[in-house]
Fold this protein.
Amino acid sequence: MCRETKREPSWVSAIRLAFLRGEITVEGVLEEANLEPGHERTVRNVLSTMADRDLIRPVDGKEDTYVPGPVLVNSDRHGLDFGKASDGGAHRWQSSD
C-alpha cells in the first residue's frame, strides 16, 4: 500500500475481493483500492491482464465482472487464516485436483 495516498495496487485489491467475496468488479476494485473516480480504464486493463493469465475469469453476461480463475483458486493457500471471510469467497471453493 502506498503510505502517502493510502491506496494499493488494483491487482492486490482484485485478489482480495476474489478470496473474500468470490466476485471481482471494476467498481469493487476502485472502492477496495481507494482509487478516485476516473481510474476505471486502468482497472479494466489490470483485470483484463489478470484474465489473460487465468487468475480470474469473466462472468458471461455481466460486463466488468469476474470470478477467481484456476490459477488463483489452485494457488497455495495453506496456513492462511480465513476465519472471518465470507462463505462465498474462493478460499471456500473445492480444488479440481
